[in-house]
Amino acid sequence: MRDDFQFGKKAGRLLIKIILPAMIIAGWQILVIYGDLPPILLPKLEKVGADFITYLMNGELLHHVLISLRRCAIGFFAGSATGIAMGILLGWFRRLEDFFDVTLNFSRSIPKTALAPLLIVWFGFGDFPKVLLIGLGAFFYTVIPTLEGVRNVDNLLVKSARSMGANDRQIVLSVILPASMPSIYAGIRIAAASSFVILLFVEIISGNSGLGFLLENSRESLNTSTMFMTLIVVGILGFSLDWLVRFTEKKVMPWQRGRTLSR
User: Fold this and answer.
1) Eight-state DSSP code of residue 188
2) Each residue's pLDDT tens digit, 115-166
3) What are the pLDDT digits (tens) for 35-82?
4) Angle formed by the axes of helices 177-206 and 127-151, to 10°?
5) Number of domains comprising the chain
6) N or C: which end of the chain has fewer CB within 10 A?
7) Is residue 262 part of a domain?
8) For the packed helices 94-108 and 127-151, what is the interaxial angle rounded to 10 degrees?
9) Pair 70, 170 in one domain
10) Phi-psi sector, 258: left (phi>0), alpha (psi -120 to 50), beta
């Protein structure tokens, strides 16, 4: 009986989640059929689907997807790992935080996409400036939440660990890191979303491959259906990455389940 109730509850939540996407698709189709819009403004869903199949079958879509995923993954994981490590260090050592405070807050105020032209001048049009830009974005989106998470750990927990003979390394790994995980994962989710934004931007302005390049190439040829197809693929990839982050969050922090308010 309980299993049936849980299944019904999950099915109801899933239904609620797909209502809005279904409404958007239906509205799209209605506009195409009855709105008398030119295809260059809003292509038919069938044309977008046909482009997807064409690019998938000839291997071009997979080629661009793999290139973009490689760039995004390297930049995201390297930047996030560095940001988390730096945030823990700054949160644990007050003088180190004071040393980096002005530089860190000044640097994070600069939009990372604004650095793209400078990085292209310095490093050219290869993969390195693209990966570096994604890494910088991921770093700044994770370092501050991690720092705040460490700073907000209850000092009583630290004192209790010290009273039981724990050293600094044990306190960081067993007390500080687990208690900071909600803040860390909040930063990781933002970093994951921003990584795709930065990736598309830098591939559009300087790429000769990748999904951003495919999007810009479609714009130049006024191929709106391929542009929509590319954007949908990017959305699916971004959604999948966010789902993966949330999945690992539940595995890493099982105690967080059911702690949010809901009605």
Assistant:
1) H
2) 888 888 888 888 888 899 999 999 999 999 998 888 888 778 777 877 877 7
3) 777 777 888 888 888 888 988 888 888 998 999 899 999 999 999 999
4) 160
5) 2
6) C
7) no
8) 130
9) yes
10) left
